[in-house]
Fold this protein.
Amino acid sequence: MVADDGSVGFAVGAHGKPVATIIEEYLPGQSGNPGGRPVGFHSYIQERTSDGSELTDFVLSVFRDENGASIKERMDAATWLADRGFGKPTVNAGAQAPGIGDFTIVIGDRDILGNPINDLPRD
């Protein structure tokens, strides 16, 4: 960052690597990116990618492993497609949600020590 006097503000962080220091803070409500996305960028991408279908086709090809993608790349592609196709999942404050608490899933009819969990007669 360059200060008004022309000096560059850096501090030394862990392992002696330079770390940029904050010379001027943003005011509440002030954007960290005042220029925003360039005007016309949206239409530029739409025009050059058949309204985005080329981008979607590419991500689908990664998801379908048509190009030797790794599992991580395929999972990232699935997330990208799901987020844009169905919307990003919302965060639910689980502790605040009514009716949700600790529970146990039981597979079988015996506990960890081999004792019967349910003494009801079986059909």
Q: What stands out?
A: The helical segments are 41-48, 53-63, 71-86. The CA atoms of residues 67 and 86 lie 25 Å apart.
